[in-house]
């Protein structure tokens, strides 16, 4: 059963698209970091997506159920009416998706972008049929996102999303949101402002007016780049993924510690851990207020209240 109060991307993102803002999707990775991210959203009166990927579940030794329970505790502790989604990020194995749905996630992502187009369509459609039977939304990906250590100034266009293919892909799969490749990458960028193909992004939006568009690789992007992507004619991106910036804030505030498991973070001295978690709260609030422009927009999800 879905976590009580959790929204699907189909409920959360169209409001953002129409309202000229995006919802930050924070890959918090460590269970302890869920609480400060929730606190940041409550303080800013913002909608929120809390997520973790298949790879991160393994890296940080976390189960979908433990992740769900930690979010539920954080929401109860905050005691606020917060529009939120619990999302499974990049995942390519059906058993992991099924485990997340069974644990109460309200949304999942099937990332079959490494497969040929027809195979991507077939696997995505299979996940959509399964997830929709359980009232869960599905994000899919078309085009390939690299990592920033492999980012090339030129020549990555072959991995970019083709607008006409995006329209066919959504039509045939029935996915609820589409992650696209237009020049962003996972990690922190080695250059100040990576080149984003805004013409391609605008073409995708024009062909998919009713489908929320997701931009991955938010860590390190300049604010003006994100704002331009959000404010495209017809409503731009409505979900912006952020992961590395949060983890860097956490570890940097604790003296530059190396990546660890979630349990290892919990075992650190309380005062040291508190420094890191406070840095996470500040970073999340900054992203909400200055990056995705969603501060004060939680009211858009409350009946009878103007956003």
From TrEMBL:
Entry cofactors: Zn(2+)
Enzyme Commission code: 4.1.2.40
The UniProt record lists the keyword Transport: no
Keyword Methyltransferase listed: no
Annotated active site: 89 (proton donor)
Pfam families per the UniProt record, alphabetical: F_bP_aldolase
Entries under NCBIfam families matching the protein: cbbA
Residues holding dihydroxyacetone phosphate: 187, 217-219, 241-244
Enzyme class: lyase
PANTHER family, alphabetized: D-TAGATOSE-1,6-BISPHOSPHATE ALDOLASE, D-TAGATOSE-1,6-BISPHOSPHATE ALDOLASE SUBUNIT GATY-RELATED
Record organism: Calidithermus terrae
UniProt gene name: kbaY
UniProt-annotated binding residues for Zn(2+) 1: 90, 186, 216
Keyword terms of this UniProt record: Lyase, Metal-binding, Zinc
Protein name as catalogued: D-tagatose-1,6-bisphosphate aldolase subunit KbaY
Gene Ontology terms for molecular function: tagatose-bisphosphate aldolase activity; zinc ion binding
GO BP, one annotated term: carbohydrate metabolic process
């Amino acid at each position: 059963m879905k976590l009580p109060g959790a929204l699907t991307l189909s409920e959360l993102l169209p409001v953002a698209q129409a309202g000229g803002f995006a919802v930050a999707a924070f890959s918090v990775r460590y269970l302890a970091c869920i609480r400060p991210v929730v606190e940041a959203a409550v303080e800013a009166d913002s909608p929120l997506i809390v997520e973790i990927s298949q790879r991160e579940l393994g890296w940080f030794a976390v189960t979908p159920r433990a992740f769900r329970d930690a979010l539920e505790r954080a929401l109860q502790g905050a005691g606020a009416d917060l529009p939120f989604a619990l999302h499974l990020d990049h995942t390519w194995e059906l058993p992991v998706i099924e485990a997340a749905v069974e644990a109460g996630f309200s949304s999942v992502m099937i990332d079959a972008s490494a497969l040929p187009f027809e195979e991507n369509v077939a696997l995505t459609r299979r996940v959509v049929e399964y997830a929709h039977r359980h009232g869960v939304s599905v994000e899919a990906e078309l085009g390939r996102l690299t990592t920033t250590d492999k980012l090339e100034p030129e020549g990555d266009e072959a991995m970019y999303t083709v607008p006409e293919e995006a329209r066919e892909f959504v039509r045939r799969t029935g996915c609820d949101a589409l992650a696209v490749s237009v020049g962003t990458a996972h990690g922190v960028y080695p250059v100040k402002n990576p080149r984003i193909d805004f013409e391609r992004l605008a073409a995708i939006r024009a062909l998919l007016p009713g489908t929320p568009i997701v931009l991955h690789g938010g860590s390190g992007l300049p604010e003006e780049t994100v704002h331009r992507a959000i404010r495209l004619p017809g409503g731009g991106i409505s979900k912006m993924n952020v992961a590395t910036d949060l983890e860097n804030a956490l570890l940097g505030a604790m003296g530059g510690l190396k990546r660890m498991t979630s349990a290892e973070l919990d075992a650190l001295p309380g005062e040291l851990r508190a420094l890191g978690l406070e840095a996470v709260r500040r970073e999340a609030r900054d992203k909400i207020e200055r990056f995705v422009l969603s501060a004060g927009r939680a009211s858009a999800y409350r009946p009878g209240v103007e956003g």
